[in-house]
Amino acid sequence: MQVARTVQECRALRAAMPGVVGLTPTMGALHEGHRSLMRRAREECDSVIATIFVNPTQFAPGEDYTAYPRREQEDLAICEAEGVDLVFMPPVEEMYPEGATTTVSVGELSTILEGASRPGHFDGVATIVTKLFAITRPDRGYFGQKDAQQLMVIRRLARDLQLGVEVIGCPIIREEGGLALSSRNVYLTDEERTQALAISRGLRKAEAGWLGGLRDASALRGMVHEEIAAQPLARIDYVSLADAESLAECDGRVTRDALLSVAARFGKARLIDNTVLRIPAGLGQG
């Protein structure tokens, strides 16, 4: 496994890579969710690149940029164990040189849900992903479904800018109790972690209702909200049931595939999770 710290080094090493190249962009503090992306890339591609970069432009003032967990040696060991060929680990000044002013935005999709709660977040994501795609020139990019809106933003970005990258979404990886894996889970106390299980529990209840034929948007949202709100330490940011393609909020009877998503705080940790509620095959979408 090779490690590049500069754009020039990364480009030189990438030029020698054979076949189909897969990319797994991360902010480090790697866990089993990141491992699953690397394994998928390893299975489907001839060469695999991982990037580790805590991107300052996707953090709003007052968020946890300085506190975000950083574990360079542990992360490199994980990358090597998962068969990554090249790790790109640039310093901030390499990705944002002095005088750089260009940013990338995908428009309305980046202003709702997570975008409304974290203004400017998705412009930061879109900008850094565009840079990483330009530097590493992957054929495929692998991203987790836990960040469902981010996945949609990146797909839109790759399509609209005709970047030639196939953006692949990979399943959410969960802890034994159901909590979606996140680097921010390290912030949770034992009690916060226990109460945070209400997020996935609420999503499962709504999903069971959906599979049982429940189609009322307010009722489905309410099942999730009620489960989380019952936890004394929970501070709900939003519970959303939105069209799976446009993210327009659903109202009344749901007749199309929908994304049921949540953001909630437990102590210092802001956690997100989701599930896709799909119209059963053969019933159509009207």
Task: Characterize this entry briefly.
By secondary structure, this protein is an alpha/beta fold. It folds into 2 domains: 2-170, HUPs (Rossmann fold, 3-Layer(aba) Sandwich); 183-277, Pantoate-beta-alanine ligase, C-terminal domain (Pantoate--beta-alanine Ligase, Chain: A,domain 2), CATH 3.30.1300.
Task: Characterise the protein shown here.
- By secondary structure, this protein is an alpha/beta fold.
- The chain folds into two domains: 2-170, 3-Layer(aba) Sandwich (Rossmann fold); 183-277, 2-Layer Sandwich (Pantoate--beta-alanine Ligase, Chain: A,domain 2).
- The protein contains nine helices and nine strands.
- The strands form two sheets. A six-stranded parallel sheet has the order 1-4-3-2-5-6, with helices on both faces. Strands 7-8-9 form a three-stranded antiparallel sheet, covered by helices on one side.
- Strand 2 (21-26), helix 2 and strand 3 (47-52) form a beta-alpha-beta unit.
- Helix 6 crosses helix 7 and helix 8 packs antiparallel against helix 9 (217-229).
- The protein is globular, with a radius of gyration of 19 Å.
- The protein starts with a strand and ends in a 9-residue tail after the last strand.
- The mean pLDDT is 96.
CATH homologous superfamily heading of the largest domain? HUPs
- Specify the structural class: alpha/beta
CATH class label of the largest domain: Alpha Beta
Helical content stands at: 25-40%
Compute the number of structural domains.
2
Mean pLDDT: 96
Quick one: biggest sheet? 6 strands, parallel
Strand content: 15-25%
Radius of gyration from CA coordinates:
19 Å
Order of helices and strands: EHEHEHEHHHEHEHHEEE
What is the CATH topology of the largest domain?
Rossmann fold
Terminus-to-terminus distance? 50 Å
Low-confidence stretches are none
Please work out how many helical segments DSSP would assign: 9
Number of beta-strand segments: 9
